[in-house]
Amino acid sequence: MKVLVTGGAGFIGSNLVRALLARGDEVRVLDNFSTGSRRNLDGLERDVEVVEGELRSYERVHNAVRGTEVVYHLGALGSVPRSVQDPLTSSAVNIEGTLNVQLAARDEGVRRVVFASSSSVYGNQPELPLRETMAPDPVSPYGVAKLAAERYCVSFSRVYHSFETVVLRYFNVFGPRQDPTSQYAAVVPRFITAIAEGRPVTVYDDGEQSRDFTYVDNVVRANLLAADAEGVSGRIFNISAGSPTSVNELADTIGRLLGRPVEKTYLPPRPGDLRNSWADIGEARAGLGYEPQIGLEEGLSRTCEYLLNGKER
Ligand SMILES: NC(=O)c1ccc[n+]([C@@H]2O[C@H](COP(=O)([O-])OP(=O)(O)OC[C@H]3O[C@@H](n4cnc5c(N)ncnc54)[C@H](O)[C@@H]3O)[C@@H](O)[C@H]2O)c1
Question: Does 182 score more than 90 pLDDT?
Answer without folding.
Answer: no
